[in-house]
Design goal:
disordered N terminus
Amino acid sequence: MIVKPHPAPLAAALSDCSAAPAKARSLSAQLRLALLCAGLAVLLMPMRGHAQAAPGAAQATEAQAPQPPSRDFAAERKAIVDSRAWTDYRYGKAEHDCYNSFFVTHCIDKAKDVRRGELQVLRKRELEVGEAERAFKAVERDQAQAIKRAEYEAGQPAREANERASRESFERKQQEQQLRDAQHQADAPQRAANAEAYNKKQADFDARVKAAQEQGAQQARQRQENVKAFEAKQREAEQRQKDVDERRAKAKEQQGQATTPRPFGF
């Protein structure tokens, strides 16, 4: 809950400011009072705005959820810092001017009272700004959480639908896998028979290949033996032909000797 300072004391101070410059004895005192009144007026303006907007804000609160005010808290804090600096400056100048008056102590005490009152007003204003900023951030945080919660609730049907679709897809895949497993088990005997037939066919083929290889080797050996036998026959035929030729030559030589006349009769 934000506790704001009541504007009545500040309004009374402003009403006193309207008559104070006329009571001031010197030009410097009138200038200081005018500056003080201007500062109080600046501080009072936001409070009057809040006071005037209070009934409307209450009605809006009853009608709908509270909306965070559009305020520049950094600028307000800077204004408070500037006002505090101006208060310190005015007090320093007032204290300096008091040494020119007859009642120096009384004058300085009055300047201190003025400074203390202004600092109290600024402190209240600073507390109000800090509390308003905290409330503003709390409302922002609540609104952000409400938005997130609304978005989560709005997306809940879609998430449920996605989860349901994923679950149904998983169950369907499980059923399809079970069907494939059952089909695989049902086809096991046929696959075993096919494998046995394939193995038998492969064994027969291997046996035929082995037999063909053995037959080819046997035929190769037979061809080598035939070649050797043919070469032996060729050599024998050549030898027989050579023997026949030798016998013919010898017989011819003997025949020639028998037909040749001999001078001595032998």
